[in-house]
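Quick one, tokens below:
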């Protein structure tokens, strides 16, 4: 089977610098990690590969340092990877991002299933997976909490529809977006790391796309834009208590009574 997993590098900390003028996060290689939902998507693809055979390709869109999450996917067992990176794609909203990733996927081999995490921890929109499927004109399901059966021409999954649990069969090619508790992702393998240190990552940039306008991508191709971005004001009150443990305990007790917590 031909399996593709969409992955993303996200900030590994809540202390992220913001470009208030452009309305975007300042992404740097410091404290960056793979989106936790995407680790689950990789695990799902690897389990399907182990059951049915085939290969797993990961694809990511981001700055050059996003290669690190592709290398992490290699260490988990992914067979190949591609990075979509170009300043022409900077500032993309979810629709422009989905278009870019869809065009990148079309440059890869044919596929049976695209796996995505349900959402990313830096955007939380849960829009990109479904938008990719719409652009590629393939069926999709999201909020997948269990893979029940992988068949020759379709996959059967269990879906959390909030007020009910659904079981659905989707024909290939298709896209499924997985919730973060669907699987426990395996750890990267040091043994594999030693063997893939020279493994090549396919590079995709705007010039890789044929007969397309740069105005359809990045900030220009984004129908939605952030009006304002800012750090939330820290309104937490901090009190330092000096004295013996008995004095500190009495102060805390009286403070909790004052706040009517006890």
């Amino acid at each position: 089977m031909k399996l593709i997993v969409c992955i993303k590098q996200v900030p590994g900390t809540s202390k992220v610098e913001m470009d208030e003028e452009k309305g975007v996060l300042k992404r740097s290689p410091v404290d960056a990690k793979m989106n936790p939902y995407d680790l689950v998507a990789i695990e799902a693809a690897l389990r399907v590969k182990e059951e049915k055979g085939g290969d797993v390709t990961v694809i990511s869109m981001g700055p050059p340092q996003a290669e690190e999450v592709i290398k992490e996917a290699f260490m988990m067992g992914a067979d190949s990877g591609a990075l979509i990176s170009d300043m022409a794609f900077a500032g993309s909203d979810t629709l422009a991002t989905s278009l870019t990733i869809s065009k990148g996927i079309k440059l890869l081999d044919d596929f049976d299933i695209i796996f995505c995490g349900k959402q990313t921890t830096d955007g939380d929109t849960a829009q990109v997976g479904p938008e990719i499927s719409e652009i590629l004109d393939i069926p999709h399901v999201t909020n997948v909490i269990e893979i029940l059966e992988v068949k020759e021409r379709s996959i059967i999954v269990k879906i959390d529809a909030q007020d009910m649990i659904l079981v659905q069969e989707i024909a290939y090619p298709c896209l499924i977006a997985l919730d973060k508790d669907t699987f426990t992702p395996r750890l990267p393998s040091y043994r594999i790391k030693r063997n893939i240190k020279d493994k090549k990552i396919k590079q995709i940039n705007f010039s890789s796309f044929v007969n397309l306008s740069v105005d359809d991508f990045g900030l220009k191709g984004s129908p939605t834009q952030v009006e304002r971005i800012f750090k939330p004001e820290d309104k937490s009150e901090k009190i330092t208590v000096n004295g013996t443990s008995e004095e500190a305990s009495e102060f805390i007790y009286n403070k909790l009574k004052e706040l009517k917590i006890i």
